[in-house]
Amino acid sequence: EVQLVESGGGLVQPGGSLRLSCAASGFTFTSYVMHWVRQAPGKGLAWVSRINHDGTITTYADSVKGRFTISRDTAKNTLYLEMNSLRAEDTAVYFCAGDIEYKYDYWGQGTLVTVSS
Amino acid sequence: QSALTQPPSASGSPGQSVTISCTGTSSDVGGYDYVSWYQHHPGKAPKLMIYDVSKRPSGVPDRFSGSKSGNTASLTVSGLQAEDEADYYCSSYAGSTPFVFGTGTKVTVL
Question: Where does the pLDDT of residue B96 fall: very low under 50, low under 70, confident under 90, or very high at 90 and above?
Fold first, then answer.
């Protein structure tokens, strides 16, 4: 059974940091480009970041560039998102998703990040 | 890259059909045949329903179909069932972005 399980969300003050993890199982992790997608309260889905199969190429949405860092550990089948200088507008449910051939085949259930003082 | 435009809501009675539009530009929907649709029950993982404009993954009922004309893609759900009530999002490959999502449509089964 394919599983993507996010963890690491929580309440953090503006300017703070958080590290999200996404544990993958049930599929060949290294065959998939991995993404983080977020959904702010009452809003739609928004793409955040992408990392290629071996972790050598990363891409970011302009809204998080310079503050967030995506990485993956192929030995642990785990995807990460290091989030720094967090702002109120980063408050959202963060999903990890696996992409092969221009579609998100697999999704996690998400982890909630709340940025508030 | 701006979000793709979807109607906020759509509804139909059980057994009826509902069609959701997804309008973008020549830089995304109109430029690539990589439009996909996702069903999202709040609190759960989104699920891939349609990919490459009109292909269905294994296990998705053939009541779900997709199409595209120019810069607008569409998802049709035929023979509506209670379990189809959910939020639906389109997504398109957009080159360097690399993906852009739609604004989302809440489908209600009356």
Answer: confident
